[in-house]
Amino acid sequence: MSFRKILTALAVTLGLAFALPAPAIGSASAAAPVAVRTIYYDASQAQEFKAAVDEGAAAWNKAVPAIELKPATGAQATIKVYADNGWPRAIPQGFGRGTVYMGRQAVNDGFYPPRIAAHELAHTLGLPDNRNGRCDYLMSGHSSPTSCKTTTPHETEAAQVRRNAGGRVPATLAGQLQYADCFKF
Ligand SMILES: [Zn+2]
Description:
- With 185 residues, the chain is an alpha/beta fold.
- It has two domains: 1-32; 37-173, Collagenase (Catalytic Domain) (3-Layer(aba) Sandwich), CATH 3.40.390.10.
- Helices cover 38% and strands 16% of the residues.
- The protein has six helices and five strands.
- It has helices at residues 3-19, 21-31, 50-63, 104-108, 113-124, 155-165; strands at 37-45, 67-71, 79-84, 89-92, 98-103.
- A five-stranded mixed beta sheet has the order 2-1-3-5-4.
- β4 (89-92) and β5 (98-103) form a beta hairpin.
- α3 packs across α5 (113-124).
- It is globular.
- The termini are far apart.
- Mean pLDDT is 86; it is low at 10-29.
- Zinc ion is lined by residues 119, 123, 129, 141, 179, 182.
- Zinc ion binds next to α5.
- It comes from Actinomadura rubrisoli.
- One of its GO terms (cellular component) is extracellular region.
């Protein structure tokens, strides 16, 4: 066997070794339907913020097709949204579960209600606060200026929620948590 033939044989062997698992993975993921996790939220007691909550939920649905936040009332709803005069806050109780308060204090400071809603809903989807000062991150909270009206999650935030929806329970959803300083200076 010539040196060239040995190289060719080696390349074919290596090529096969690397190529073989790929079609198996590809066909498996192509065959498996994407399971959408429907999460019901009750914003019927969110008073003047009901539309803002719907907008925040829609932003998440668009960014993460694996989840669908749907309005509902009663026991079906695993996320309850209220309005009060305090600071916006969230008490997550598992993926897609918890209580959200649309606090008027941040709205009075000038923060954009749909962005507040998208931020607080994100806590119930397993995202922690991330005060990096960037408007393109929902979780930057009060570290972004009040002029920031973005409701679209950053790709890294959407990716984290996608992973959380896939069943990995993040530390941000374990134990007794309360996010209360989201928009509080
Ligand atoms: Zn927060």
